[in-house]
Amino acid sequence: MACHLLHNVLSGVLSRSEPAPRGIQELLRVGERTAGFPGPLGIGTLAIRLQGTDVVIAIFIIVAMSFVPASFVVFLVAEKSTKAKHLQFVSGCDPVIYWLANYIWDMLNYLVPATCCVIILFVFDLPAYTSPTNFPAVLSLFLLYGWSITPIMYPASFWFEVPSTAYVFLIVINLFIGITATVATFLLQLFEHDKDLKRINSYLKSCFLIFPNYNLGHGLMEMAYNEYINEYYAKIGQFDKMKSPFEWDIVTRGLVAMTIEGFVGFLITILCQYNFLRKPPRMPVSCQPIDDDDVDVACERRRVLRGDADNDKLKIDNLTKVYKSRKMGHILAVDRLCLGVRPGECFGLLGVNGAGKTTTFKMLTGDESTTGGEAFINGNSILKDLLCVQQSIGYCPQFDALFDDLTAREHLELYTRLRGIPWKDQERVVQWALEKLELSKYVDKPAGTYSGGNKRKLSTAIALIGYPSLIFLDEPTTGMDPKARRFLWNLILDIIKTGRSVVLTSHSMEECEALCTRLGIMVNGRFKCLGSIQHLKNRFGDGYMITVRTKSSSNVKEVLRFFNRNFPEAVLKERHHTKIQYQLKSERISLAQVFSKMEQVVEVLGIEDYSVSQTTLDNVFVNFAKKQSDNLDQQEVSPPVPGQSPLQRILNLLKSRPAPTELSALISEEPAELESDDDEGLISFEEER
């Protein structure tokens, strides 16, 4: 029987030598207890008992070291989801430097738990790992494990949006791969007498070399096994057969594999950063005029396409963005946008949510890839010279991309260094930004404790650092109180006076009227109107608003009869006690005629005062907002035609867009006329359909 034979051979060898080492003595004791079992089971039990402790130690180390590299990705995912990472790139940080700095910092953090593991091995006095011969190999395994596993974790940060999800996923993957691969190869070693299983085990050992977790665990096990063999040969005096732990089959093969994996992992991370592995699809965009373009929009398109906007701070040439949706197919978010922003101009980009404003900003700053078209900032292409583009712009994103644990001063110091401001000028620039945005009172408080308005101030201050020639402000005054809002308006006006350009989005028409020299209203990813504020009011306004206040309520009915006789096309908008408001179409009657008729009856009708005003920008905006389609079906591509590629479907969409439907969620059906029979006329509304 195999078990008896193995026991007799070992006893015979040891009877002619010195006392057996404790590992071999234990092997003999176990053999005596298992000699009654069938051969294969007895041999398996002997091997497991010999290396069982070492397998458990290796597995425990794998488990402990699986949590550490996974934790490095948490902060990276958080930076990506809050756009803090993108804001650093916009501020001039080179992507390679960004990842290299993360790599160095994470390796320094990794050394802390790795040192603790080594100390524990010394505390428990395990000669297989702490002897003078084996300790350098153990140290090499731990160092190269951190070197290799850290950059391998980085690409996962591009696929996750929630930090906790990424953390749990990577822990599970590390545990599964490390434990499964290590235990599988160990168990297959017990059946090396089977040629097929031995060949499979050899193949698996070579394949598993791509996993640093396996290299760490397997290397520790091989060192422990080698220590047992060396101890045995030392006892019988055959020192020439003792092996160094740095033999190729013991540790060195894994060390070489982990060294290569570190470089490969970092290279893959850089390739992912530049989207080298997943190139976004590009499609040609027609330069032909669009039939349903507004006159002003078509004029701007011709100006851009014929090259008259080449010297502008910002030139947008047929910029297009198509999103893929699992349910809706392809959604056209930005449709052949053409625009030029001149030096010293503040351009307002208006539109309801889903119109494409933020998507346009993301493409111009490099946060999103473009599907078609091109844009130039200071003559640099966003496709070919993105790093040069980002170094010349300032960007305040829609949501604050701040670090909650950093103070206002630390934020500004970080971005002044990214902008390349000389060290001797940094303190002066930081102090200027703090005073300019009125953040001196909160300079040393963490940003996580700031109010929404102060966070927007800090985000705006970051956008102004480095004196960029073009500044993108995505709803910069959201959450600000009126005083802070007015203060920021004055700051933006000062920026424009210096010759720099500003492009901003806002839902406040008052803000646009105070700041913008020109604005455009986007609907379904396209400009529906373009020009100065007064030009848009004249072209798309609803005429005049006439507000009349009588001396007593008894004069109200006379005024109503006067308007019905002299201005039959006027629409009653409001009636409240002695106040009446009418809307009058400007194309029906001139402003001079309105004043002439009103002045004739001021005394007769007992009118205390009246005013005639032009319709506001809000009315113009609401009229265009009615044309905005729902975000989910605004530009849905029609069902695919058999044999037609997705690119062909997108091109067909650009050639003939479906007419947009009204967005009922934004502009509901006009309310029915509400009138009171009471003589006082408390409420009376009539909306013109």
TrEMBL record:
Topology relative to the membrane: Multi-pass membrane protein
Give the top-rank taxon of the lineage listed in the UniProt record for this protein. Eukaryota
Cite a single GO MF annotation: ATP hydrolysis activity
Residue ranges crossing the lipid bilayer per the database entry: 55-77, 111-129, 141-160, 166-191, 250-277
Which keywords annotate this record? ATP-binding, Membrane, Nucleotide-binding, Repeat, Transmembrane, Transmembrane helix, Transport
Indicate the segments forming the ABC transporter domain, all copies: 314-549
Q: Which SUPFAM superfamilies match?
A: P-loop containing nucleoside triphosphate hydrolases
Which residues lie within the region annotated Disordered? Answer: 666-689
Return the Acidic residues bias intervals: 670-689
Kindly list the places in or outside the cell where this protein is found, as annotated in its UniProt entry: Membrane
The cross-references to Gene3D superfamilies, in alphabetical order and at most eight, read:
P-loop containing nucleotide triphosphate hydrolases (3.40.50.300)
Q: Which InterPro entries match?
A: AAA+_ATPase, ABC2_TM, ABC_transporter-like_ATP-bd, ABCA, P-loop_NTPase, R2_ABCA1-4-like
**Keyword Repeat among record annotations:** yes
Q: Which Pfam families does this chain map to? A: ABC2_membrane_3, ABC_tran, R1_ABCA1
Query: What's in the GO CC field?
Result: membrane
**According to its UniProt record, which protein family does this protein belong to?**
Belongs to the ABC transporter superfamily. ABCA family.
Record's protein name: ATP-binding cassette sub-family A member 2-like
Origin species: Notothenia coriiceps (black rockcod)
